[in-house]
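Objective 1b: paired records.
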Amino acid sequence: MKTCLTIAGSDASGGAGIQADLKTFAAHGIYGMSVIVAVVAENTCEVRSVMDVSPQVIRDQIDCVMTDIPPDAVKIGMLSSQASMQAVADGLAAHRPKNVVIDPVMLAKDGSELMAPEALTLFKTGILPHATVFTPNIPEAEVLTGMTIRTEEDMRKAAKILLDMGAQTVLVKGGHLEGEAIDILDDGQSVHRFESARIQTKNTHGTGCTLSSAIAANLANGHSPAEAVQGAKAYITDAIAHSLALGKGNGPTHHFYRLYNEGLAWIED
């Protein structure tokens, strides 16, 4: 069985973070493992509080997994503090895992800040260069590049800048622009354009986490970055189209819709 490791924060409501990543891995037939860097008191309406795990425990978690069950792919999500980010950077430098997908989680759906501003420089120098696939949305790409992104051409320029920062492949997600949803993937050799119709729903909690972990699962299963992104986009589109109206705010996507609708004889029996 292929294996994936997620390094991220938890989500008490189960729609994003570690919980979303593990569900996504399972939906792709992957054995999932986790390094928790922060415990987040969160639901579909708000992020109430965040408690960072100590850097030593973060590094110990990474070492325990890497030395016993080396993952076929790693997904990195929320790194809220400079100290936790340094622990992850040290772990990546020590173990050099293959197939690293990095989702720069900076803001929650409610606008809550999930990455300390003082950690941005370390992110650029210690985390981003490890990315096999880097998956910023437009606000995150703007912070990292210092440019304003309003058009598809801007997205292409931002991807080039992020490649120059060390990422092997960059996926700039265009969900924040008007019109059809367009994502740009640049691997330094060619540019791929992914276009899809927008799904009218407010239940999109954890979509970024789910997409990036699906990319990691596809890389672990032997697909190229472009193939991994294409498959992940099909998966997240399906999950959003059948999202769950749970909670009072932005509900979660349906990570197991395909499985549930292809028959669960093992449950029915």
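Objective 1b, second protein:
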Amino acid sequence: MLTPPIGILGGTFDPIHIGHLRPAIEAREALGLAEVRLLPNHIPPHRANPFCSSEQRLAMVRLAAAENPGFVVDERELKRDTPSWTIDTLIELQRDLPDTPLCFLMGMDSLLGLPSWHRWRELLDHAHLVVSTRPGWQPDYPAPIAELLARHQTREVADLHRLRHGRIWLADNLPIELSATGLRALLAAGRDPRYLLPAPVADYIRQHGLYQPSVGSSAEEGFEPTP
């Protein structure tokens, strides 16, 4: 018998903010997820190195998880010295949790770019995909994604509980227009980040002097685009 599904949310988290957390909270509540695991990347595939060290980003993710019941931190990607390919993580998690359905949480932009991901056709062999969408927005799906949705989309929450993997759930979420790039620019300008990220994370950033103008620049926060 299967145990309740868990959510998986990976990212650079540089820094972690409400654009990451709010959709995950909504998914946990709507789908009855037993927990949401936050997996900070060590080496994000095909994007610039993060502003902050792995240790600093892990500290911020831990602070954010402590603010949210049902959220836990999984450090496995930080312990690798190879790029943080999602397929590798899902295979590991499925091996560790053979009786637990995995729900990989992503945004619509990531779904639209899925054909560029490493071994993307194998993802549904190991997890369900839970995609945050904007209410009322009907994207123009590329042919491979339209075909994927035709075969795998479900509107039944029960499917995510009774099957280990293989379904796609499109979730209507509150629209939050916030990126880590924009948040870093706001912090570098000395503006108040209140309500854009958890208060303990904002305190950590302030105490450690992170994201100051002298640090440099980094790529947009996201999941795993590949050439």
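Residues 215-227 have pLDDT under 50 and may be disordered. Residues 6-208 form a domain with the Rossmann fold fold (CATH 3.40.50.620).
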